[in-house]
Design a protein that fits this description.
Radius of gyration of chain B: 28 Å
Radius of gyration of chain A: 15 Å
CATH superfamily of the largest domain in chain A: Beta-grasp domain
CATH topology of the largest domain in chain A: Ubiquitin-like (UB roll)
CATH superfamily of the largest domain in chain B: Aldehyde oxidase/xanthine dehydrogenase, molybdopterin binding domain
CATH class of the largest domain in chain B: Alpha Beta
Strand order of the largest sheet of chain A: 2-1-5-3-4
Number of helices of chain A: 5
Structural class of chain A: alpha+beta
Oligomer: heterodimer
Number of domains of chain B: 3
CATH architecture of the largest domain in chain A: Roll
Number of helices of chain B: 20
Number of domains of chain A: 2
Largest sheet of chain B: 7 strands, mixed
Largest sheet of chain A: 5 strands, mixed
CATH topology of the largest domain in chain B: Aldehyde Oxidoreductase, domain 4
Strand content of chain A: 15-25%
CATH architecture of the largest domain in chain B: 2-Layer Sandwich
Strand content of chain B: 15-25%
Helix content of chain A: 25-40%
Number of strands of chain A: 5
CATH class of the largest domain in chain A: Alpha Beta
Distance between the termini of chain A: 42 Å
Shape of chain A: globular
Distance between the termini of chain B: 79 Å
């Protein structure tokens, strides 16, 4: 067992974990952040995307021990009193149906807009390539990211 | 007094933002895998690595010595109680339905079939212990190809043979139609095997307290599952509670009674502890039922002027290794749809259900209807090509005209409504059909290496499953009704209980809109409850684009009863005769004296107080209604697709996609548009990207999302959608929209590819139309335009 200290959504956690424990299972089963779901086992779907020190990572592809000393933001910590503009844009553009990909999609979009505050449609589509959605056909996800960009949320 | 908000006018038709979203965008969700119960154990399954083998020995003792392992079982350990997974649709009297034990006992028949199970303290320990189980197999020959499976001397999947059933339909004089026709075309189309790939993997939790069990499952069908657990596994129905909490998509794949659900219940009972199982994606690709997988031989007969005379279809449908809940019925849902929107004199179909050593197939978005629509829309395009007629022109010569409705098709269905002319006209206009045809000609003339193709799909489908009598006539094991309850609360708020079980469709929002209009109460005052058999005791659940068409009408029936009860009480409050009251926008008023009135909220409070109810009136404004539809509904639409096909690389790019759908009255245009988008995407995925592939030994080589190409945002185009409304013949005028996009888009895309490659002499490309396949199809024809 290895001792790690991780800040998750603004709260510091200290735990002994197995070296093989995936960050996503640490978040879901140790910390209780079940808002971050698991959609695959080959890091293709992106449902488990979180921000680690501000950068999006697929938390199924990070070991909990690698997150030692990091600051992790999950979908549960993104809103700050009120909805984050990307969350609001997803609601207003109907960019989710079943909602299973949504946490990862919102966090990936947040990171995309941090890198590129005014992406073209093609840049949005390419930027979200690592996050799969089976419900929406992506049309409204693209619209939502554009809406959030137009609101200038990351500037 | 409770403050009464102003009742809105006409919620139906408004693009209401969804009530469901708040929790989904903040991670406050309740997926089955989130559930933790005190003492809960985790299950993991050992699965067959062979497509076909006899099991000669299973030794789980090694697993029992592993850390954290509480129990381990083989199929034999449950042989006495695990029974057989049910098939609810014996489509013919002599159908072969082989036993399907949840955990294999003597023989395995597909890669991934469960052979043993470990129950441990957590998922990591359970997975570790699987490696300590010994299984000896005696390999048997795999059976992978349907046509070979039917050949004399083929190895058998089951002792009774490889043919499960043969189902036939015939109407009109086919012989005359084909004998006298000027043109007869015959084509064979391949419907590849698809993996549904809902984003949430399946998960199950079973918890027993005494003789009562609660089963949480990522399912589309909590009510059907409860019935099945009782009817087929002997657990008294009143002791079973099934909960479908938040469910992350289904697309038919969670319309199933699964081995893992049954075993969770049985193992939980044996151990006296709550148990959980969550599948990994690669486990799910192997063991969630697959979709499609048919060979379609189709013949069409037509006059020289293009009038269709007859259609003859010979289907081979891959059942996989066993018949699951509706496996054999899926092709039949398509059997009535091959004639599509066209008039003809004769139609015949033969469907043969074939066993192979692969994962069973079952319902996947559209279930039978995408296959049928693909075949008819492809061959009509080929007929147009043969006759040298524009494909839309040929369709117009044959389709049912809007003044012909209601129209009984050659397949015996009565289409209640539709307007193919209007949908097509609108689609052509948005698409810029004539301009694109001109551009196509110009590029063909100058030999552009990137060719423009225009694909047409004028589809219809049968939805709103289903009239119970019709289901009975097709030997289906249940009815097709839906249930709803309305509870007027004392403060005038409303609880709506529905038997449909949403998993992304937005029922909480749409149902609130329907009820708001019926009762004249504000949208925000309505709460919709579903997905728990203790809360919603009756229902037939969600599949087949049935929820609004059938469940929505149940809501209307329940609202009618509430209004009727309230009217009697309002009459007493107003000292008027009930016959003199009108009900509008949530208010009962006396005819001729509009100032005298009571709102339904005032009536609700008075009913709660019950101080001055008329004699014999019970103090309740609650109601129940069950609705059984008289007919299916028939959404239709015209989808147009423009593809850019690079003839040097085989790469296909969708340049524009236009969908004009007629789904009757639109309750929420935002939700409808979303359903159409997602449906189109799944249909495009079949046309261009996805295929579940087994190798020659029967190993699934597309077992992960790295190998099975579920398209991303970068792989899909933008869609232009619109609607045309010809109301259905039900009180809401609704037809259903869940499957329309998927049914329509696959042939639109492939027709566009074939259209682009026409100058190269390419008639068809087998799906998925990958760059390699497109390139090879061009080369096979000499590679020159």
């Amino acid at each position: 067992m290895t001792h790690i200290t991780v800040t998750v959504d603004g709260v510091s956690y200290a735990d002994h974990v197995e070296p093989r424990l995936l960050l996503v299972h640490y978040l879901r089963e140790v910390v209780g952040k079940t808002g971050t779901p698991v959609g695959c086992d080959t890091s293709n779907c992106g449902a488990c995307t979180v921000l680690m020190d501000g950068v999006s990572v697929k938390s199924c592809s990070v070991l909990a021990v690698q997150a030692d000393g990091s600051d992790v933001t999950t979908i549960e910590g993104l809103a700050n009193g009120e909805l984050h503009p990307v969350q609001r844009a997803f609601h207003e553009e109907h960019a989710l149906q079943c909602g299973y990909c949504t946490p990862g999609m919102i966090l990936a979009a947040t990171d995309l807009l941090r890198d590129n505050p005014h992406p073209t449609e093609a840049e949005i589509r390419d930027g979200l390539e690592g996050n799969l959605c089976r419900c929406t056909g992506y049309e409204n996800i693209v619209r939502a990211v554009r809406r959030a960009a137009e609101a200038g949320v990351m500037e | 007094m409770t403050a009464i908000a102003e009742a809105p006018a006409n919620e139906v038709g408004r693009a209401r933002l969804r009530k469901e979203d708040a929790k989904l965008i903040t991670g406050q969700t309740n997926w089955t895998d989130n559930i933790k119960l005190p003492g809960m154990l985790q299950m993991a399954f050992l699965r067959s690595p062979l497509a076909h083998a006899r099991i000669t020995r299973v030794d789980v003792s090694g697993a029992l010595t592993m850390p954290g392992v509480v129990a381990a079982f083989s199929g034999a350990d449950f042989a006495a109680e695990q029974g057989s997974l049910p098939c609810a649709w014996p489509v013919t009297p002599d159908i072969i339905i082989p036993p399907h034990p949840p955990m294999a006992v003597d023989e395995v028949r597909y890669v991934g079939e469960a052979v043993a199970v470990v129950v441990a303290r957590d998922r990591y320990l359970a997975a570790d212990a699987l490696a300590a189980i010994d299984v000896d197999y005696e390999p048997l020959p795999p059976v992978l190809d349907m046509r070979a499976a039917l050949a004399e001397g083929s190895p058998k999947v089951h002792e009774a043979g490889n043919k499960s059933y043969e189902w036939v339909f015939a109407a009109g004089d086919a012989e005359a139609a084909f004998r006298d026709a000027a043109v007869v075309l015959e084509r064979t189309y391949r419907q590849q095997r698809l993996i549904p790939s809902a984003m949430e993997p399946r998960a199950v939790v079973a918890s027993w307290v005494g003789d009562e069990v609660t089963l949480w499952s990522s399912t589309q069908i909590p009510h059907v599952l409860r019935f099945a657990l009782s009817a087929f596994f002997g657990i008294p129905e009143q002791n079973i509670r099934v909960i479908a909490p938040d469910v992350g998509g289904g697309f038919g794949s969670k319309l199933q009674v699964t081995a893992e659900e049954v075993l969770a219940v049985l193992i939980g009972r044996r151990l006296g502890k709550p148990v959980k199982w969550t599948e990994s994606r690669s486990e799910g690709n192997m063991t969630v039922h697959h979709g499609r997988d048919q060979w379609q031989r189709i013949r069409i007969a037509a006059d020289r002027d293009g009038r269709i005379r007859g259609l003859d279809v010979d289907l081979l449908a891959d059942m996989g290794a066993y018949l699951m809940l509706v496996t054999p019925g899926v092709p039949l849902l398509g059997a009535f749809m091959y004639p599509g929107i066209y008039k003809m004199d004769a139609y015949s179909l033969k469907c043969t259900g074939v066993f192979t050593t692969k994962m069973p197939t079952d319902a996947y978005r559209g279930a039978g209807r995408p296959e049928a629509t693909f075949a008819i829309e492809r061959i009509v395009d080929e007929l147009a090509n043969e006759l040298g007629v524009d494909p839309l022109e040929l369709r117009e010569r044959n389709w049912i005209r809007h003044e012909d409705f209601p129209y009984t098709t050659i397949a015996g269905l009565t289409y209640d409504s539709g307007n193919y002319e209007a949908a097509t006209e609108r689609a052509k206009e948005i698409f810029g059909y004539d301009a694109l045809r001109a551009e196509q000609k110009e590029r063909n003339d100058r030999g552009d290496p990137v060719r423009l193709g225009i694909g047409v799909s004028t589809f219809t489908e049968m939805c709103g499953l289903a009239p119970s009598r019709v289901l009975g006539s097709l030997s289906y094991g249940a009815g097709g009704w839906e249930h709803a309850s309305i509870r007027m609360l004392p403060t005038g708020k409303v609880e709506v209980v529905t038997g449909s079980s949403a998993h992304g469709q937005g029922h909480e929002t749409a149902w609130s809109q329907v009820v708001a209009d019926q009762l004249g109460v504000p949208f925000d005052d309505i709460r919709v409850l579903h997905g728990d058999t203790q809360v919603s005791p009756k229902g037939m659940d969600t599949y087949g684009s049935r929820s609004l068409v059938v469940g929505g009408m149940a809501l209307v029936g329940a609202c009618d009863k509430v209004v009727a009860k309230a009217k009697v009480i309002a009459a007493a409050m107003l000292e008027a005769s009930a016959d003199d009251l009108e009900f509008s926008a949530g208010r009962f008023s006396v005819r001729g004296d509009p100032d005298a009135g009571k709102t339904i909220q005032e009536v609700a409070l008075a009913t709660f107080a019950a101080h001055a109810l008329p004699d014999g009136v019970e103090p309740s404004l609650d109601s129940d209604a069950t609705y059984d539809p008289e007919n299916f509904s028939f959404p239709h639409g015209t989808h147009l697709c423009a593809t850019e096909v690079d003839t040097e690389t085989g790469m296909v790019k969708i340049r524009s996609y236009v969908a004009v759908d007629d789904i009757g009255v639109v309750v929420n245009p935002m939700i409808v548009e979303g359903q159409v988008h997602g449906g189109i995407a799944q249909g495009i995925a079949q046309a261009l990207y996805e295929e579940g592939v087994y190798d020659d030994d029967g190993n699934l080589v597309t077992a992960t999302l790295a190998d099975y190409l579920v398209p991303s945002a970068a792989d899909l185009p933008s869609y232009q959608t619109s609607t045309n409304e010809s109301p259905a013949a039900n009180r809401l005028g609704v037809k259903g929209v869940g499957e329309a996009g998927t049914i329509a888009s696959t042939p639109a895309v492939v027709n566009a590819i074939a259209d682009a490659l026409k100058p190269f002499g390419v008639r068809d490309v087998t799906m998925p139309c990958t760059p390699e396949r497109v390139w090879r199809a061009i080369q096979a024809n000499g590679g020159q335009a």
